[in-house]
Automatic annotation (TrEMBL):
This is Sec-independent protein translocase protein TatB. Residues 73-127 are annotated as: Disordered. The gene is tatB. Signal peptide: none annotated. Keywords: Cell membrane, Membrane, Protein transport, Translocation, Transmembrane, Transmembrane helix, Transport. It is a single-pass membrane protein. It is found in: Membrane. It holds the Pfam family TatA_B_E. The chain crosses the membrane at residues 6-25. Residues 113-127 have a biased composition (Basic and acidic residues).
Length: 127
């Protein structure tokens, strides 16, 4: 990223140790690490937002293309003429007469008979 050679990194480390001192160096490195983490987080959020904007722009462009293609297809396809059969909706389910409902006995909805508990086999006498 910065294209530093080993000799340049060594000079930076020596100057840092002299300026900050060996006692404060761990605290300074921890602070620098926190700053780098925050910077990476901000860059990640920026990149995510930018990618979302690009995807949204691409989707809008594709929707325009699809709308134009759909319009072209609709203009090219023939319309329904008067001599072609047209689909009609089906009639609803038949309605039961009230006289039919009185002819049947009143049965509970669901099961016709209550379930009996299973019979246990007789026990064998122990010898």
């Amino acid at each position: 990223m910065f294209d530093l050679s080993i000799s340049e990194i060594a000079i930076i480390v020596i100057i840092t140790i002299v300026v900050i001192g060996p006692k404060e160096l761990p605290r300074a490195l921890a602070t620098a690490g926190r700053w780098m983490a925050k910077a990476r987080g901000v860059m990640g959020n920026f990149r995510t937002g930018f990618d979302a904007m690009v995807r949204e722009a691409e989707l809008q462009e594709m929707e325009k293309k699809w709308a134009a293609e759909n319009e072209r297809i609709m203009l090219e396809s023939p319309t329904v003429s008067d001599d072609e059969p047209v689909m009609q909706p089906l009639d609803g389910p038949p309605v039961a007469d009230e006289t039919d409902a009185t002819d049947q006995p009143n049965l509970p909805l669901g099961e016709d008979t209550p379930e009996k508990p299973p019979e246990k086999p007789p026990e064998k006498p122990s010898a």
